[in-house]
Amino acid sequence: MTYQIRKAAVLGAGVMGAAIAAHLANVGIPALLLDIVPPDAGKDRDIVARSGLEKALKARPAAFYSKRGANLVTVGNIEDDLEELADVDWIIEAVVERPDIKHNLYVKLEQVLTPGTIISSNTSGLPAHMLTEGRSEDFRRHFLITHFFNPVRYMRLLEIVPDVDTDPALLQFMQQFATEVLGKGVVFCKDTPNFIANRIGTYGFMTTIEYALSKGYTVSEVDSILGPSMGRPKSAVFRTADLSGLDTLANVADNLYKNATDDPQRETFHLPEVVREMIRRGWLGEKSGQGFYKRVKSPDGESTILELNLNTLEYQPQQKVRFPSIGEARNINDPVKRMLT
After folding, report:
1. Phi/psi of residue 224, each to 5°?
2. What pTM value is reported for the model?
């Protein structure tokens, strides 16, 4: 079978779903963005998807190359517009990380899909074999996981995870399409808990926050040390967690603890109580307006960034952290030499 992608659909207009739709528009691919109809929607049954698109237009860093790109994104809802999926070449599912919700959606998809349509999930760690359980042969043959990273436009990594029945020709096509059209660097992963990046990244975050709590390091100190000087982006550790969403972090950690039973470092994946409490308070990071960092406006209208005190869970002015070794490292281009400074 010859594959091509001329039109796509994204199911789920949250931070990731809307950003994926935006990046498809960036490369000239029309995208249908669908989400649920909330009980209080009234006449605007597309309000959730519309809100997701509006947030993507306001996102920082920018999700779209140009605001004109939003003209290629059409919003709708899963109740009224599923039949339009018969005309798309690629469907990306980006709904909440619950197998039951994904399964129920896949049942509905099979009623409207054109045979041969590519279906992928943006799950950050649910197994492919679990997601395709009970699905038809055609569905399984054209299913794979395409795990994008936030912010989608800027993060080059794309993890691709096949199911046991995925068409090998589809995998070859998606690798080429993701590389040449979407500008991604593709890594094929085995169908193991949370794949590669999130398994390593979650371990790194957990060990870092536990060390910070035990040694008294602040949020700003950690991000200053573990940023560019260590060959990492400026978002470092806590800012990256805010961008990803603490609820997503919790889902990944809980999934790892539940399923990585043979991992000798399994106990590391217990989410620290400070993060659990932040989630209970709704401090989920960028998506909720506050997490480890919080941006506020002063009385004179200037924007100020606050950081969370990990011990008191109170916000305080962001520290200006200066370490002599970090200052010296900034002038060294080679990341290995920077880390050895």
Report:
1. -70, -40
2. 0.86
Q: What does the alpha-carbon distance between residue 172 and residue 157 come to, in Å, rounded to a whole number?
A: 17
Instruction: Name the CATH superfamily housing domain 8-188.
Output: NAD(P)-binding Rossmann-like Domain (3.40.50.720)
**239 closest CA partner among 208, 216, 213:** 208
Measured CA to CA in angstroms, residue 231 lies from 31, 234, 235, 248, 333 at distances of 35, 9, 11, 24, 10
**Domain boundaries, given as residue ranges, for the chain:** 8-188, 216-340
Question: How many beta carbons lie within 10 A of that of residue 236, not counting itself?
Answer: 21
Answer yes or no: are the C-beta atoms of 204 and 188 closer than 8 Å.
no
- 216-340 classified as CATH 1.10.1040.10: yes
100-to-104, 106, 132, 203, 329 alpha-carbon distances in Å: 6, 10, 12, 27, 48
Cross-strand bridge partners of residue 111: none
What tens digit of pLDDT does each residue of 192-246 get? 999 999 999 999 999 999 999 999 999 999 999 998 888 888 899 999 999 889 9
Rounded distance, CA 102 to CA 94, Å? 9
Integer Cα distance of 137 and 133 in angstroms: 11
Distance CA 255, CA 194 (A): 8
Nearest to 33 by CA among 15, 8, 58: 8
Cβ pair 127, 191 in contact under 8 A = yes
- Look at strands 73-77 and 90-93 and give their pairing: unpaired
